[in-house]
Design a protein that fits this description.
Length: 119
């Protein structure tokens, strides 16, 4: 990921899952939060949906993305997609984003190289 400017680093960010990409340059991201109920003490799960700007239309349904607060872009859209953390090929088919650091940490980089050498 590219280095962030100081004003970009201060912006609020949230991590959520893309639930809709049917609009042009816009995705709907569901952000889930777990809080304790004030009276009963039980954990309550809340889901909030945010509309986020996706300039290149890269996000697919099921992707896990980081969204950052921005200036108002339209009536309901004031978040932008900063990065895609986990990519999918379709709903329910998650793949880790192609990052060398993750491949080295999990040891899959060596397995990929071995498979290519055998072919």
């Amino acid at each position: 990921m590219a280095e962030l400017l100081p004003h970009d680093a201060r912006r609020r960010t949230k991590v959520g899952k893309v639930v809709s990409n049917k609009m042009q340059k816009t995705v709907v991201v569901a952000v889930e939060s777990v809080r304790q109920h004030s009276l009963y003490g039980r954990n309550v799960r809340r889901t909030t949906r945010f509309k986020a700007h996706d300039e290149e239309n890269r996000c697919q349904i099921g992707d896990v993305v980081v969204i950052a607060e921005s200036r108002p872009i339209s009536k309901e859209k004031h978040w932008v997609v900063r990065e895609i953390v986990k990519e999918t090929i379709g709903p329910g088919l998650e793949l880790l984003a192609e990052e060398p650091a993750i491949a080295v940490a999990t040891g899959t980089a060596d397995a990929d190289e071995d498979a290519e050498e055998e072919s």
